[in-house]
From TrEMBL:
FAD/NAD(P)-binding domain mapped to chain residues: 5-295
Position of the signal peptide: none
Domain NADH-rubredoxin oxidoreductase C-terminal: 316-379
Name of this chain's protein: Nitrite reductase (NADH) large subunit
The protein's required cofactors: FAD
InterPro entries documented for this protein: FAD-bd_OxRdtase, FAD/NAD-bd_sf, FAD/NAD-binding_dom, FAD/NAD-linked_Rdtase_dimer_sf, Rubredoxin_C
Gene3D superfamilies registered for this protein in UniProt: 3.30.390.30, FAD/NAD(P)-binding domain
Lineage: Bacteria, Bacillati, Bacillota, Tissierellia, Tissierellales
Origin species: Tissierella praeacuta DSM 18095
A Gene Ontology molecular function term of the record: oxidoreductase activity
Keywords, ordered alphabetically: FAD, Flavoprotein
Amino acid sequence: MDKAKYLIIGNGIAGLAAAREIRAHDENGTIIMISSESTLTYYRVKLTEYMSKEFTDEELLVSKENWYQDKNIKVILRKLVEDIDITNNKVRLDDGQEISYEKLLIATGSRPFIPPINGKYKEGLFALRTLKDLHYIKEYLKSCNDVSLIGGGLLGLEAAWALKELDKKVNIIEFAPYLLPRQLDKEISDKLEKKLSEHGFKIYLSSQAEEILGDGAVTGIRLNGKRKLESEAVLVSSGIRPNLDLVRNTEIEYNRGIIVDKHLKTNIDNIYAAGDVVEIDGMVLGLWTAGNEQGKIAGANMAGKELEYNQPKIFTTLKIGNIELFSAGIIDDFDRVHEYKDDERDIHYKLFTRDNKIVGAILFGDLKEMNTIRNAVISNTSIDEYIKKDSRFK
Ligand SMILES: Cc1cc2nc3c(=O)[nH]c(=O)nc-3n(C[C@H](O)[C@H](O)[C@H](O)COP(=O)(O)OP(=O)(O)OC[C@H]3O[C@@H](n4cnc5c(N)ncnc54)[C@H](O)[C@@H]3O)c2cc1C
């Protein structure tokens, strides 16, 4: 049986960040990473952009193969961990191989959520999560003209743009009454919708896909209200679910994700978790930067440090074509809104205040002020102070 001082399940950014950090604090302890995918850690965040680009898998790698050799980190690819034996500190892989550990990190990430839609198993309905998905989707799309996107969130809109760059006609189907309701108010969302429509996207709001049409392969979608859209492929972007299969039959506590403390430790003393698979303060974040930071903290703690993780403030930026927007903080619970508008340049900024302090912001059309405004939201700057420096806001 192979033995690891540090065993990491999953080689996404959380797993890799942990391995890096462990090696920074422990030069010699054996580190083994296991992944069911067939590639070393890659920039998953770039997959959407690469839908419309030529690339080699190598370009997407976060660290090249020789880095793992230099750091003496063993990576086992194309193997699924099927079982964790907490009592005996070992795991079993799908080929029967067992590996024992002193410290274990679960960094199994998440998978796309596909809502229950009739006919969803037809050929041509997919979600983009892995490099393998990307290769399959790119090939499939070569013979498609009309493509529908279920889910008009940030990732969905980025994907819609990539599809447009591939010269596809794109339908965007969104359940909410306006686009990006968590990041935008209705007024700015309407502006976004208008711009997207000008680029040729067909947007269906307050809409739900009820059935995927076609014999075997997708030929269309039936929406609620019985409207039918022609579509040769459907890309689903409706959120994620943590990969919890491994922990379901163990004593490791989980809810929507694996529950960890500030040190990223689970309820089992030598088992940590990080990345999309964890839930902290009731939230599953599903963000690259959070996975990276959590991996670092978990790795350092596994190697004997005592670091704490603090949830980051969440900011959103969307840059597709000539559309730029930024959203930060609280935009739905405020006393006043201070605005700056330049209709000619299609710029619209809003600062949301509570008790005269800036608690949230939306920038549309131009992001030059993004860093200044982000800092104002983080430090809850007084609006009077802010307006003294930038008198454009009314
Ligand atoms: C298309 C796309 C675009 C995105 N864009 C952004 C963005 O712009 N900004 C942002 O912040 N975030 C973005 N994200 C989210 C971001 O990529 C994730 O938050 C991040 O990659 C999660 O990293 P992770 O290490 O937790 O998990 P993952 O990257 O999911 O890695 C987990 C790995 O574990 C493997 N695994 C799972 N179970 C097992 C098992 N039992 N045995 C062995 N291996 C296993 C999986 O195959 C996978 O390789 C995007 C995601 C996608 C899919």
